[in-house]
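Example 3.2
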Amino acid sequence: MNVKVGSLIRRERQKQGISLRELARRVGISGSMLSQVETDRTRPSVSTIYAIATELGLSIDALLSEAGQEPQAPAGMTIAGNNALAEPSLAEPASLRGLVASELACQLVEAGDRRKLELESGVTWELLSDYLPHLVDFMFVTYEPGGSSSASGKFMRHTGTEFAFLLRGELKIQVGFETFTLRPGDALSFDSSEPHLLVNEGSEPACGVWFVLGRRLTPESHAARFSSAAEMSMARAQHHQAGRTFAPRQRTDPDTTP
């Protein structure tokens, strides 16, 4: 089912006492553009919708909810108890604290029941689960030919870690100064606080499964995963030395292969 997000954005903005002009300033777009988004006269880009969701403290599930209400914890889930999965830590979202492993429920989302959000330039998000909306964004993502996370080529950044698995087509992902071309069966993970841009330069849709962990963590708690910038750099260097960093494959033309 297709979902329109404009009315939810406007309602949440007004509930928080934020003017249209102020929210537009925070997310880096014009007031007229935000007005068109709120009245569903234009589709926001991926970078814009992430920025709006972050500023308003909304989960992707809330954006994809026609009722515009934050989902409740699944039946059987508890937020308090003695048998917690782990001790709370600075980097652990409050929504995960105190969960009892034996009481976690299950959730089935059938293909025809997926909530769909159509964004700018042929990008579509389909929600695969709203099981832990404050912790995880789990989506089936499609980039039509020419589709981009930002029509203007603007890089986006937000808290969290992204995990992508491509099922069809080709998708170019720029993360910082590195460029990766994903093809069917390829997977990529990266720190979402690094500037990144996604573009489909191919002739067929690029489709894959996206898993964004910790998007709603505060920058402080996200940074707490690393005790220092030096530790972060060391971890990256170790990944490179171990050969675990994804390297784009060179295309081989079958007509010229011996």
